[in-house]
Amino acid sequence: MVGAGLSGAVIGRHLAMLGHKVTVVDARGHVAGNCHTERDPATGVMVHVYGPHIFHTDDAEVWDYVNRFQTFMPYKNRVKTISRGEVFSLPVNLHTINQFFRATMGPAEAKAFIESKADTSITDPQTFEEQALRFVGRDLYEAFFKGYTQKQWGVSPTELPASILKRLPVRFNYDDNYFFHKFQGMPRDGYTDMVEKILDHDGITVQLNTRFDRAQAGEWDHVFYSGPLDGYYGYDRGRLGYRTLDFERFTHQGDYQGTAVMNYGEVAVPWTRITEHKHFSPWETHEGSVLYREFSRLCGPEDIPYYPIRLTAEQSLLRDYVARAETETGVTFVGRLGTYRYLDMDVTIREALDCARRFEATLATGERMPAFTVKA
Ligand SMILES: Cc1cc2nc3c(=O)[nH]c(=O)nc-3n(C[C@H](O)[C@H](O)[C@H](O)COP(=O)(O)OP(=O)(O)OC[C@H]3O[C@@H](n4cnc5c(N)ncnc54)[C@H](O)[C@@H]3O)c2cc1C
């Protein structure tokens, strides 16, 4: 199992429960991959080291699974944003609309109003900007979508595909819960504690600070690889594009911003958001506070890859690596890096469970375990 993130831990646990001997290696000095949390020794705040993670899912099996290893505390993600010198509620909802237009509209009235603002001359939106203008019109687009998207992706929204904005990003009620999912929460003792418990099995050996190299693949009956697909081949045909994040950490005595996530929609402010980590554990009390100012930029060779870009150029390179990987035997590429996709934690766990069951089935039938159990 290459990688001790959720993918490696969940597959490893499943196979260990079946009686297999599993070795999990990770190049980092901790388990849990990008979900890693640790307590700041000075303030006691649980810090989401690689950026904030909120668990949300409609998948009852996945929800039951994580609850076996951790007590989940109620948590709703309520995001605020600063735009034109005011604080607004996100996702854009009736409160945002009424505040922005200095109005007191009800749902039906607001819906008709936003429809009247939408640019109906755009019949076949091709770009993110056209799609947003088609949905919400110029005023809301410029205040809430344009600057943030440009900072997040590092290119103008006129160069991004319309597909990024799949549906109307506006609610005509006062629901400010960021996620729609039925089950939402935060692990009481953090994600790293949860992953340590998933990995706590007699059949599993964890080796941290251990980098896996493709040359070692033959030493194992089967390798599940949750590292970067292009990295498996030493990036010899080029690098799949990613965005990375820089976190400027700072501390504060007391409450800095009164909420967990404050977005900054304007291009003039270089960071995309400030996250205040103690508010991700609202059941705890801490006098001190730990905050991250978040900056997004293109990922370089030494940076941590966060968000796959997946535009046209990356798609063709990806197809190349996938075709090559499909000729491998004895290795399966899994997780967000192995399949070069953005995956929420619940999807990662779902795919890991399915992958482990597929492996179990191939052992029973003698069929070959494929290089991918999902489409990369
Ligand atoms: C900024 C950010 C915020 C997010 N917020 C949320 C959220 O709020 N809610 C949500 O559901 N999801 C969120 N996610 C997604 C979540 O991080 C992923 O679903 C999850 O981390 C995927 O787990 P994984 O095991 O596939 O990959 P990872 O967590 O990346 O684990 C892969 C591991 O493999 C190791 N590795 C790689 N190559 C090698 C090698 N050659 N040898 C040894 N080890 C290696 C790495 O060190 C790493 O620890 C967020 C992601 C990002 C980037």
From TrEMBL:
InterPro entries for this protein: UDP-GalPyranose_mutase_C
Stored Pfam families: GLF (PF03275), NAD_binding_8 (PF13450)
GO cellular component: cytosol
UniProt superkingdom: Bacteria
Molecular function terms from GO: flavin adenine dinucleotide binding; UDP-galactopyranose mutase activity
Domain UDP-galactopyranose mutase C-terminal: 143-342
Entry protein name: NAD(P)-binding protein
